[in-house]
Amino acid sequence: ILLMIILSACISGYIFGENLNAQWWIIDDHEFMAFLGEDGVLPLREIPERLMMDTEVGDIGGKSRYRPSYYFLRLLETSLWGNNPMWFYAFRLLICTIFIFVCWQISSSMIGFLGGLVFTLALMSADYWPEIFSRLGPTESYVVLGLSLFVFGFYGLIKNKPSRASALHCFLIFLGAIISIGSKENMVILAIPIMYLLGNSAAKKQLKISQVVFSLAALLFSALIVYAVLLGLSNKGGRDIYATDVSAFALSEILMNE
Question: How far apart are CA 18 and CA 77, in angstroms?
Fold first, then answer.
């Protein structure tokens, strides 16, 4: 496992290591500047207030988007890394490393060490990865982190028999779901495998309190996101952030014309 982690870091560095030399970009990075303020510092204690006052988190229903995890992580990064873009991109290298390791670890258990490496490298050859890891704005970078944790926990839970380690797997599923769903709303689809795990464990009479607590917390968080988005769409007359009509009537018209 240690070798796999080291090699995953090397692959991530080879692909995106040049990003460490990047500077601020006006398209996405203005938010970090606003969070830092004139003194260039965001104390950790100010994060809750800034989260509620300066982002959509404190204005539930005011917009057709609701991404509490995304803005919390952006504020946390701002507080930790300050006015140094290198550390922001270093964190994305870490996310990429975690993703590569999880893919490699899981795939290698099915098709072997080298087979898993080939599969992972093929996956990383897709042309959308630079859009995710070479800019600081996309929500997908946090989604990748969340999905990595979610999949690793999910795989560990279904692979191993109930044991003391299952609480950690449940926590990883919960944390991954919170990060993913709270960064990009369409990731509420993760509620489906969470409900499957709950039902499967209940049917086998293997439910543990940790799984129930973490699963219900993740499902309640998913419901909050859905509620906030629907409320926002309702308040905006059924139009999303791109002013596209996504009301039931408009969608039915599109389907009828297809």
Answer: 20
Residues paired with 239 in a beta bridge: 245
Per-residue pLDDT tens over the stretch 229-255: 999 988 876 555 545 555 554 434 433
Task: Report whether pLDDT(207) > 90.
Answer: no
Q: How far is the C-alpha of 103 from the C-alpha of 150, rounded, in Å?
A: 12
Q: How far apart are the first and last CA of the chain?
A: 50
Which residues touch 23 (CB under 8 Å, ≥6 apart)? 85
* Coil, helix or strand at residue 245: strand
Nearest to 149 by CA among 123, 110, 177, 128: 177
Contact criterion met (CB below 8 Å) for 164 and 157: no
Biggest CA pair distance of the chain? 58
Token pair in block for residue 54: 């300066």
Q: Of residues 150 and 201, which shows the higher confidence score? A: 150
62-87 pLDDT, tens digit per residue, is: 888 999 999 999 999 999 999 999 99
